[in-house]
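Predict the 3D structure for this chain.
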Amino acid sequence: MARYLDCKEKGEVRIFEDTDELATDLADYVADLSELAVKEKGTFAIALSGGSLIGLMSKLCEAPYDKTVDWGKWHVFWADERVVAKTHPESNYRLAKEGLLSKVPVVPGHLHSINDSLSAEEAADDYKFAVRQLVRTRIVSVSDTSDCPKFDLVLLGLGSDGHVASLFPNHPALDEKDEWVSYLTDSPEPPPERITFTLPVINAAANVAVVATGAGKAKAVHLAVDGPSQTDNFQQPPPARMIQPALGRLVWFLDTSAASKLDSYEVTSE
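Done. Predicted structure below.
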């Protein structure tokens, strides 16, 4: 049975006995947010990352979600992307398309991927322009506290080093305050060229969810949720700890292995 934990300013933490239980709850969560957004404004703007996250979202391809979710109202973005061809094995677009989006009736024109024929810098500028146009047409809302886009949901995985999207520890992209989209040519993980939403954009979202499974993520989860202890060696907080939605809701989806190093928090519901 899932445990729902109150983590104070770090949002809600949901801990599951296994990944199947996690995937089912994640599907319910996404479907509920989709329904709410469509009722309120006619569209659902979701930004995805890559990695194992897409596999966990595969429940959305199954009943009842394949029929009950209003897929035609979805607009899909990428919180980060590798600057490679869409057919490349390391493309987040390809991963999402093969694992989820080709199996549900999302409108092809509502998949807002990067221009993979451009350099990383050019692709970041082009993606920022594309998002800005969709803000102007109100496909994507605008933040109540800044000029940033306000996505209905930004869905992120977590690296074992605490990175989210393509925001890596101690990288200059973490300090970006003005741009919506940044780029990397020196990613510490391959491939080196990437684009990524910046922290101001992620933190402007109405909802942010971070998903982590496995013991290899336990230390990163601890540092992000609990904060560093005196014995932790770090130069700055891990990027995941910087995910602090200004007015939105943050939810962590963890299996018991990823949550194994967390401090104890009060269980609020089950």
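The CA atoms of residues 32 and 39 lie 11 Å apart.
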